Description:
Order of helices and strands: EEHHHHEHEHEHEHEHE
CATH superfamily of the largest domain: HAD superfamily/HAD-like
Oligomer: single chain
Largest sheet: 6 strands, parallel
Strand order of the largest sheet: 5-4-1-6-7-8
CATH topology of the largest domain: Rossmann fold
Helix content: 40-55%
Structural class: alpha/beta
Amino acid sequence: MKERNLFLFDFDGVLADSLDLYAEAVARCLLRIGTPIVKNREDYLALFEGNFYESLAAKGVDLVAFAGAAKEILPGLDYDAMKPFAGLIPVLEALQKDHLLAVISSNGFRTISRMLERFGFDRFFQGILGSDFLFSKKDKIAHALLKYGFDRTRTFYIGDTTGDIREAREAGVRTVAVTWGWHSREKLVAVHPDFLVDSPEDLLQMGSGLGI
């Protein structure tokens, strides 16, 4: 009998192709509150070398003011421009047959829930922990372990940025970096994830370490 695992997926850059949409939106939010620290895509991606919100705070951004600007700007985004990455449905369908899947993200619950439904992914995931729950992914992972009753050795966080991998490692779970997302393969290799995958199908082919 297969041993049941907990798979915790990041949303943006793993499930959803949303980089251009959010890079522009975050730049607008920061400009509105008088801290225009994002001038280009590279500036934006650098915020994800650690925890996104901690990176903003370290650069002098008032997180309360940022949240206020986001509440005004984000509802007006063209969410139809956000697309799912190709090849995910058969992989998610296969994984959820024997394992528990949830989303842990820096995005908000409502946006994630809405987009999962639009993508046809909602039936695969048992829960969502977004930015409106906690800012720290490390803390959200710890909460998920308690909520779902899984040991750290049977838990895998699937992310696309160096910050994802660092926070998941700090939480004590196994780390899976995907190369189709926001940070380059070279950046991800440098933080030594437990697994590095180049396509969604590779999530099913990572070997006996996953126990699937």
